[in-house]
Design a protein that fits this description.
The chain has 226 residues and is of the alpha/beta class. It is 33% helix and 18% strand. It is globular, with a radius of gyration of 17 Å.
């Protein structure tokens, strides 16, 4: 079974670096075009299930990816973006100026990151992986050629991929940000999960596969289930 995870398209908040977190924002013209173009990846692909974060921007992206298709979509709160509490709605430039030390703790995924109402990277990773595993469990009887589509958000996706590629959260900031509408794939075979593709590129051709601090045995982005 292949799990296709796609980030939402660009929003006006992305474009001006306003912190979204779990606040609502809508796709801009570029984001709508990105989502429509990403739909080409799935045009001729049978999807056994479609899941989306319950956020407006992911709902819009999912609808544009599916286009004329009639696939049923399940919306899940646990696929929403990392919660950034009182920072949400502010400009990143203002937060970086006012709270540089806390911004750095967030950037390096420190468990000491502490902002009112916000999640640490550890917490959001646990939430995201639990969501993926529950979806896998729901569809564990599907044949190996089955495909699932999940539309989510950049930060939570990056922590999910880090888990399955066995990349430590404390070096995650060294890897590229997932671009809007990026398409990643996790292959599931029994108790094994393997990151097959990041940003439409085979895993072993990405920076993820060659990060100096990857744990032993992760050159293929493969780990057993937890």
């Amino acid at each position: 079974m292949r799990i296709h995870i796609v980030r939402h398209g660009q929003t006006s908040w992305n474009a001006i670096r306003r912190i979204q977190g779990q606040l609502e924002s809508e796709l801009d013209d570029i984001g709508r075009q990105q989502a429509t173009e990403r739909g080409e990846d799935f045009k001729d692909m049978a999807l056994s299930a479609v899941y989306s974060s319950s956020s407006v921007r992911t709902r819009q992206t999912t609808a544009l990816i599916l286009g004329e298709r009639q696939d049923e979509v399940v919306f899940r709160d646990d696929l929403r973006e990392v919660r950034l509490g009182v920072w949400e709605g502010h400009m990143w430039a203002d937060i970086e100026k006012a709270h540089p030390e806390m911004v750095e703790l967030h950037r390096i995924a420190s468990p000491h990151f502490n902002v009112e109402g916000a999640e640490t990277s550890q917490v959001v990773q646990k939430r995201g992986v639990a969501a993926i595993e529950s979806i896998i469990k729901e569809h564990n009887a599907l044949p190996e050629e089955a495909n699932l589509l999940i539309v989510s958000h950049g930060a939570i996706m990056k922590t999910i991929l880090a888990h399955y590629a066995d990349v430590s959260l404390d070096i995650l900031h060294e890897l590229p940000t997932l671009s809007n509408c990026s398409h990643c794939i996790i292959q599931v075979a029994g108790d094994t999960r393997r990151v097959e593709q990041i940003e439409s590129t085979p895993f072993d051709q990405t920076a993820w596969a060659s990060a100096d601090q990857l744990l032993p045995g992760t050159a293929t982005g493969q780990v057993p289930t937890v």
